[in-house]
Design brief:
about 70 residues; alpha+beta; three-stranded antiparallel beta sheet; 3 strands; globular
Length: about 70
Amino acid sequence: SSDVCSSDLEQYLTGEEICKYLHISPRTLQNLRDSRQIPFTVIGGRNIIYPESGIRETLLDNMRHVEEPF
């Protein structure tokens, strides 16, 4: 038996989920992968999954604050 808490386990998202959550197209997601801007793992040579913590970290690292218009 393992003492690892379920909250310590990485959650992975599918490409469809990423597109939905980030409001991007599958092509944009592919561009982000190709340019290594987001973390991903290929399983079985075809299935691609994305670590939720890595996606969150990428978003935070690239967050820009909106400037006041006046």
